[in-house]
Amino acid sequence: MKFFNLNFIYLLSLRMNIFPVVLILFAVRFLAVLSDETRLFTCDFDLVTPDGKGYTSPLSPQFLSRKCVAIYDKRFTDRTTYDMYLEEARAFKEYLMAIESYEARKSGKELCANKEYALDIWERQFFYKQVDLCDCYKKNNQETFLKCLTDKRRELANIINTSEYY
């Protein structure tokens, strides 16, 4: 019995010595994953009204993240960055219009009739497999990430627009 208690205490002390290290490693990993500075992101600048004073209804200014608002506010002084985000947003809109029109046509329903969408997840997965968007998320900086997303979404829209149901 005494031997069991010593082993238990020894194992417990090992665990207690390792616990702070494991806790620190977990915290560092958690903070790195959630770090706002390293995360790749997009901005829905196509939803901002042309005069820049409002947002497309029913959205409000709160729909843009803090980072996107900062980029939008600098659109006249850092036009290149703003244009990259705007171009990606437009490419997403092209893709979205293509897939929603495709699904509506295939289902025989009108586009957004009665605020309903003819969503076809299986068909979307078929198209997604043809254009690997995951490659974009492996990019190491915002510029290459946005360019990749823009190119792949336009390619995806083209594939959808030229598919057999269109």
UniProtKB/TrEMBL annotation:
<keyword id="KW-0472">Membrane</keyword>
<protein>
    <submittedName>
        <fullName>Uncharacterized protein LOC125777325</fullName>
    </submittedName>
</protein>
<keyword id="KW-1133">Transmembrane helix</keyword>
<feature type="transmembrane region" description="Helical">
    <location>
        <begin position="12"/>
        <end position="32"/>
    </location>
</feature>
<keyword id="KW-0812">Transmembrane</keyword>
